[in-house]
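Dear colleague,

Thank you for sharing your sequence with our group. We've completed the structure prediction you requested, and as agreed, I am returning the results in plain text so they can be pasted directly into your records. Please verify that the sequence below matches your submission; if there's any discrepancy, let me know and we will rerun it promptly.
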Amino acid sequence: MPWKEANVMDLRTEFVTRALREESSFSALCRDFGISTKTGYKWKQRFLADGLPGLADRSRRPNSKPTAVTEDVCCELVRQKGLHEGWGPKKIHDLYLKANHQLPDVSLSTVQRVLTKAGLTERRRRRRRSEDCGRIANPLVATAPNEVWTVDFKGWWYATTRERVQPLTVRDAYTRYVLLAQAVADARMETVQECFVRLFSQYGLPLVIRSDNGAPFACTSAPLGLSRLSAWWVTLGISLDRIEKGHPEQNGGHERMHRDIALEVEGRVDGDLVAQQAALDIWREQYNHERPHEALGMRRPAQLYTKSERRFDPQPVELEYPTNYLRRRVTRVGCIKLAGRLIRISSAISGWHVGLQPLGPGEFNVWFGPLHLGEINVPDEKFTVAS
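Please find the predicted structure tokens below.
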């Protein structure tokens, strides 16, 4: 019968002792101890070679492993992770394969195992969400570069000089290309508009700009939420796409990019605003040219992004309306003059013309370019559309 674990060494000792005395045939002795002749010869040879210690169990671990990861490979993977702390194993694996032609290739599972053993990965918690949580009824999905740009302010932080760092970020939704990561002095319309003048001059005009409902991108008290900045975008032929209030996840790709800035730039640089901006510039270069994106088939944003064919003209734009529309310029305080009366529209579009589409005596649809702002009614017996 098989040997019991408790006295296996004693049995092996007794076996080899009797085998050396040759009191009976070797096959019969093996049958008495319940082992095969192959096993019996193995224990006899080990005893002759190493004595009693040779009868102890040996490790079954192979003496060599052809697929074992070398120390150089482990060090390189850890080094790459140290340079890109916010990157997961997939991105580190892709970066390793493209950057190290002299070291042997490794699989994704090997990268995951090395980083996990080094304590450099974290297991993500998956949150369960309801089916319609943060879902837009008809989401606008970009299918080509410059179809949709997304814009927002990254949450601010203090530089070591106690200066406030508030990056304005703009990103192409299709290619993930970061067009701008600029630490601006403030969030005033003039400051942000100046940034967009530089962007439009360099990259051309997008079809749509997506933003939240905060200033200076929108104004909740104005018709259609127009602000001076978004009204300027409309005059350039850019459509507006705003997420719902309180639902930043509807612009999730942009928010995810902000998390990368928080992990890789925020609070990691000593110095004033100049030093902070230099760090943002380096981060943007790496994000666009080095960081692979799983949604892009592990390609880099710079590999896909191309400038817009819609050129930017810095000269003031004059909005055009059908010939039967009345044109009225909006005053500095946001009013138009009609039939001798001042009618308030919105100061967000001051300086531009609105088009008044006649509906009947004293009744008009009010248009700002392609946007229908609402209706106005001027009750006056003497007022006619022809006047």
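Summary note from our side: The radius of gyration is 37 Å.

Kind regards,
the structure core
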